[in-house]
Amino acid sequence: MNDDAEAAAFFARRDAVVMPSSVPAGVRIELMRARLMTGKSARTDEWMRMLNDRYDECVTTLAGERVAFETIFRTSEVDGTEWIYHLAVYGEGGGVLDENSGSLDADHAAFGRECKERGWEILDPQLFIATPLVRAAMIRAATDPFGDTG
Q1: Which end of the chain offers a freer environment for a tag, N or C, measured as fewer CB atoms within 10 Å?
Q2: Is the pLDDT at 150 greater than 60, yes or no?
Q3: What is the pLDDT of residues 34-61, one digit of tens each?
Q4: Helix or strand holding residue 117 (H, E)
Q5: Residue 11: how many CB atoms within 10 A of its CB?
């Protein structure tokens, strides 16, 4: 399968995940994980350092990706297998890196191709809970990221 077909298949699978009734209309939540390649721990450290060092650029990309919230976790199993987990809240049609937009998304994607095994395991969301203030902010950020509707 070529990269375009693989990406299309992933997004079709991701977008087919049914949101629980607690997720506001127009909003999607996702938790995915990917195994890191053997021997790529130090390079993954560099990847995460790059994202942290370029935090302001990361924040700038969120509105265009319709992302309200995004975080990455990392864990190691007893046998040394490492995983990264990606948690995001985003609007319908969002949550997609724009590798053609410039340096950050392209660099982020390049690190991903180098450090993690291809593909993501998509976990099924079961519940979304947030205080009214946080819920309203996430809905707004995911569905109206540029403040176009008032």
Answers
A1: C
A2: no
A3: 999 999 999 999 999 999 999 999 898 8
A4: none
A5: 13
Structural domain spans, the chain: 3-143
The 10 Å CB-count burial string (b at 16+, else e) for 49-84 is eebeebeebbeebbeebbbbbbeeeeeeeeeeebbb
For residue 144, the 8-state DSSP code is -
Tell me the per-residue pLDDT of 70-109, one tens digit each, with 9 for 90 and over: 999 999 999 999 999 999 999 988 777 766 666 788 888 8
Is CATH 2.40.50.140 correct for 3-143?
A: no
Token look-up 């392209």 returns 106
